[in-house]
């Protein structure tokens, strides 16, 4: 008898909560005059300092493969993809908003699903109910996310003091097209990053060390780019409290916590399952707006959230069903996609 790995689900929900906060922090810092590359450099440098001792201490008793030149090259590629994903992502947020960025991230499941099929990390058998459930669930997830974003409908909960705040979040005024295009590029880099990271974790299954090298190479590469792109000394200043708080949040809860938890979950479930949680970000963003900012809850948000839940459970069911064969349960392999934990005791 199998059961859902609740730890992975909770971990990804926590990671998505941190992701929404990261977008808000990045928007605040960049709007205050800090460029996206400088923000990326500071946050990943702080994360590297945190992860340098903690990652090696955490994995000190683990037998792991040696750090070869090809493995370091993989870390460098992972950092390259992450650098440009963050650069285009924060630039897109600057031209649009965290809400639009959260919605656009829902393209990641589709991109990742296609890439996983191309690189044979996912199997598609249209005669299989599990494959159909995963495929249809992915489409439903994305549909629900865009329903929440672009269809408002009548208000369900009114907050007169901030009646226009949701409208301002969802309907961007200037440069929203540029922001949207930059965010699409961000999604392409992010999806490729998930595929590359999954491949690296198969060769080097030490999650925190992988995250350390990723953050280190992102900090290194963004620093080099800053030398050529951003020569304004004022952009590097952390005297402003908004910038300092944003960098601290990004380094601790973004690059360290969010990436670390996502990597841990990815190692246990695969890139497609991790990417399927991206549509939950728009639900979290809407909930944060209603609870903390007094935003109005609209019918479109409610319907979209319900559709996302349906799609999410469809994907979960498809992944769970893959762990079984007609005559029983497949052998359990924690290095592949163990969505299920197998009970060893029979009743």
Q: How many strand elements?
A: 6
Taking the alpha carbons of the first and last residues, their distance comes to: 9 Å
For the largest sheet, list the strands in their spatial order. 1-6
List low-pLDDT spans.
160-174, 325-347
Strand fraction band?
under 5%
Principal-axis shape: globular
Number of helices: 13
List the domain count as a whole number: 1
The major sheet is characterized as:
2 strands, antiparallel
What's the overall average pLDDT, rounded? 77
Alpha-carbon Rg, integer? 20 Å
Sequence of secondary-structure elements: EHHHHHHEHHHHHHEHEEE
Which structural class is indicated by helix and strand composition?
A: mainly alpha
Give the arrangement of secondary structure elements:
Elements (H helix, E strand, L loop, with lengths): L1 E3 L1 H26 L4 H23 L10 H27 L2 H7 L3 H11 L10 H22 L4 E3 L7 H6 L5 H28 L3 H23 L11 H29 L1 H5 L4 H13 L4 E2 H23 L2 E2 L2 E2 L10 E3 L5
Antiparallel strand pairs: 1-6, 2-3, 4-5
What do these coordinates show?
This protein has 347 residues and is mainly α. The protein has 13 helices and 6 strands. The protein is globular, with a radius of gyration of 20 Å.
Descriptors:
single chain, 347 residues
Briefly say what this structure is.
This protein has one domain (about 15-130, about 160-295).
